[in-house]
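Support request, please re-run this one:
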Amino acid sequence: MRVIFYTGKGGSGKSVISCASALKLAEAGYETMVISSDPAHTISDAVETPVHHTPTKIVEKLWAIQVDPIREVREKYGVIQEYLVSIFKSKGLDEVLAYEIAALPNMTEFVSLLKVVEFVESNNYDVIVLDTVPSGDALKNIYLPTLLGSSAAKFIKWIAPFASIGKIVEPIVGVPTPSKEVINEDIKLMEILGRLKDIVIDRKVTSLRLIANPNAFSIENLRRTHLLSNLYDINVDLAIMNKVIPEGVSDSYFKEWKTEQDKYLTEAETAFHPLPLKTIRRFPTEVKGLKLLAELGDELFGDEDPAQVYFEGKAIRVIELEQGLEVVVPIASASKDVCEVERMGEDLSVVILTDIGEVRNFIPLPAIAQMMTLEKAKLINGELHIYFIDERWKKEK
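Re-run finished. Output below.
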């Protein structure tokens, strides 16, 4: 089983490249599902076939689905949504506004990630390709169980028997009490998120592939996503520069464009080293239809297997020391300083000042570290080293 995410700034061509990759995988004999979470329905335009919210067959061994977040939430998580709406309405919000807020930010990409679990566990496909919305920050969603703490589901189960008692104090606190059905759905969702996290951080199964155009804004977006992915322990195995003006174009109109392009291509090679970097030429027409998608797929992968893991970066490492523990987190960008490191329950909150701005992440701690004292954190050769001291060792000394 392989799960391949494609992400990049809006307009970078990720939907087209996702479809081209999926078509190439199907031609290689893999039973392939491509999932689109782009509300613009660009996947339907790319394959020139209406793609629905249920699996749509495109060609032999290739299926596609256009995620409908509203339908998904209503059908599978409607109980939770209705409870959220009741809370907002109890605070005086108009019903229409309450439903809008209950949709929550990043809902489209969040539901798309949940679909990954569904299709992986169905065992009907060899490869799942996810065309994500233009936001690397959406990857934070898979860490929801970690941010809430591993005891969250246990706590929800513990309070379940008291749901009916809560109805007594409901008029006093002014907030609706969750029903047992809501609590059960919360537990179910937490468990799915846990399985999603296991899938996404499995470096043999899941890869994130970054797509950019040869310009400053697109490359900066990619650098941030690469950084976040490493912090979240997600393997990035390939970077793709799309819409590159071919060498053979000699028209004087493109002279300055090509000069800038060469500069950004060199910058990208440096920024993402040792990550493999592929380039795709700017096609003379819009890439639509299976014929052009196949041509793009051939140009991108040639005779290679698109399902291979092109690169396996360093995972978060835990090193036992005589005096305690060292946790090493790879940082994919040239970082300047660690601004803040503090414990937040079972996790470590880290704020890093990088060349692309301030980035915050919650790093799950191994169980043994939770019994130790955080001593310091520092950046060494592009890696964040976090040190913990065992108080028993200090006493012995």
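Confidence is low (pLDDT under 50) at residues 145-152, 162-176. The first helix runs from residue 14 to 27.
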